[in-house]
Amino acid sequence: MTPHLSSCNQQRGRQMRSLLALLFAGTFTVAGLCRADQLAESIPAVLEPLLITKTNQFDAEQRGIMSMTTDRPWGAVGFLDNGCTSTLIDSRHILAASHCFTFDYDGHEKNGTPYQQGGWQRSLTFFPNYHPSRANPPRVQIDRVIVGSRVQEGSNAPADWGIGHLASAVTDFPSLVVQPMGRWRYPNFVQFAGYARDAATYPQGSTSYPQPAPGGYCANFSGNCWWIPAFVDPRCLAIEENNGFVRLDNFSCSIQGGNSGSPVVWNTGSATAPNWKITGVISGGGGFWNATRFQHAPRYAADLAVSTFDSNAKRTQVFAIDSDLSKVVSRYRSDTSSTGSFTYFRDLGGVSKPVAIAATELTNGKPLVFVAGAGNSIAVNTVSGSTWKGWKTVSGPGGITSIRDIAVAGSKNGVPQLSLIGSDYKLYTSRVLVTTTAVSLGPWTTINTGVKVKRVSATRHADGRQQLFVLSSSGDLRTIWQNATTSGATWSKPTPFSSSPVANLVDVSAGWTENGTVQVFAVDSNGDSWSRSSQGSSPSSSWNAWSSWNVPLYAPKAASPPELDGIISLSASRWRESISVTIPVVFALDNQGNIYVTTYESGKWNPWRSFYN
């Protein structure tokens, strides 16, 4: 609604002060502004580009139609067949909003299949640089997705971003690098493009253009699928960033339904040699989420480990392998409170063909990280002062061609013991030797488990002895432990870890209870989870029976709590910030590469939440 002129007269002084504050102090405080054509006599010419006018070339009403192109930036922008916009960020990945990949509410698919809040939208198709005039528009299926959050509720709202993996590479259209604009650059102008459902331009809505042959797209959101050209907003004022959300001027920027997932781009080059980068993604009206939230988020988290922050043993740090990009990333607690927020993921550098990761805490409180890479090589990284030394390579056991899994735990005296499973399905272990200048490994010892093994988890009991849990190639669980806490202590004979809860376990991880005793978690081939805990402080203590361990997904609007589907791996640990009591934490990885987290507090496990926010 256009404001009454008398109302605009009252706003002129406030608007002038706000615009001047924006230019000279970097803030913008008035939410509702009058149209500039009503204020023209009061606004200096230098400020006119910041406001909407019917004649100004930067007016939101002057936005144009995105052409068919293979040039950057708009050649990277495409259409999802649920009405969202998405963008190629490399030949195999697209960026969109989280709610473009999940359901925000309970409902039923077009074929009658029910779904719950937080459920996945399946069988989505991406159309790069879609335009209805392009004959036989190219398209590719999305085969897996990671999202900032499965639901956008409360504290999860800022995580409304998602990255989809394409079933085949898109090579005929460009991609855009994710590189956020520094918050000190605001206010500034940006651009964005998207398949906005503008009824004034396309009054026939979803019937404006037919679906591309052979049809059958938009299975669940046919009313949102307008097969129209995208709009380009050529000069949109980004006002300020607050906690990762960048507020947009609602006069120079026009966000409508269909802009969900639209990339916000900025030129890091020059006018004559532009270099377009993505600084954020639009998820709704009013602004966009800064790309710092997802720039280094693993596009497929293949494994995960927990240790301490670079320079503070009382802050938790989580490390993950991004197997899609062959690198290691981490995020850490921003303070020493167990309720403090985590930073966004950062890049710790590339490792060739990483398959498994393990981390421990050294006696100086700093983290030590091992990554099983190509062949029998192991990449090692630790911190000197407050700086990571960089990845160095040490060799695994001779005679193996690859490493299947890796685990590490400290001894009573803080000396790490590294264990791994080789290509020959055998268990090997070695003491880690750490000096101020280097990390090396002692001789490798082969431990006869009596069966072929494929997974290993290591932990230390309260009595100082280490215990290993190994999973056989047939899915049975066995255990072995040190007979003493002294250096070079022998290992017990491997024994079945009671009877496995079900046949064909696929992963195992050992952590701690709130009382400091060991608790073991396992995942079976159906994605169901199981747990049992020790009754004492040593490996020889009695154990409680296996029990089903099903934690629901956080979805407060779901009629019944949905289960976390597709779990393939668990990593158990504890928060490093807790001093008076142990706070157990378990991370889960699903078959799409997402990371989830749950903690045991107040006598119960909290619902799973995505570990990106």
Can you tell me about this structure?
- This protein is mainly beta.
- It has 3 domains: 5-56, no CATH class; 65-293, Thrombin, subunit H; 301-610, 6 Propeller (Neuraminidase).
- It contains 1 helix and 43 strands.
- Strands 11-12-13-16-15-14 form a 6-stranded antiparallel beta barrel.
- Residues 1-55 have low confidence and may be disordered.
Gist of the model:
3% of the residues lie in helices and 38% in strands. The strands form nine sheets. Strands 11-12-13-16-15-14 form a six-stranded antiparallel barrel.
Descriptive key words:
613 residues; elongated; 3 domains; six-stranded antiparallel beta barrel; mainly beta; Neuraminidase; Thrombin, subunit H
Q: What spatial order of strands do you see in the largest sheet? A: 11-12-13-16-15-14
Helix content: under 10%
Proportion of residues in extended strands: 35-45%
The shape, in one word, is: elongated
Largest sheet: 6 strands, antiparallel, barrel
For the secondary structure, the number of strands is 43
User: What's the Cα radius of gyration?
Assistant: 27 Å
Number of helices: 1
CATH class of the largest domain: Mainly Beta
Overall pLDDT level: 87
The CATH topology name of the largest domain reads Neuraminidase
What is the structural class? mainly beta
User: Could you give the distance between the termini?
Assistant: 36 Å
CATH architecture classification name of the largest domain: 6 Propeller
- Taking pLDDT < 50 over at least 5 consecutive residues as the criterion, the unreliable ranges are 1-55
CATH superfamily caption of the largest domain: Fucose-specific lectin
What is the count of structural domains? 3
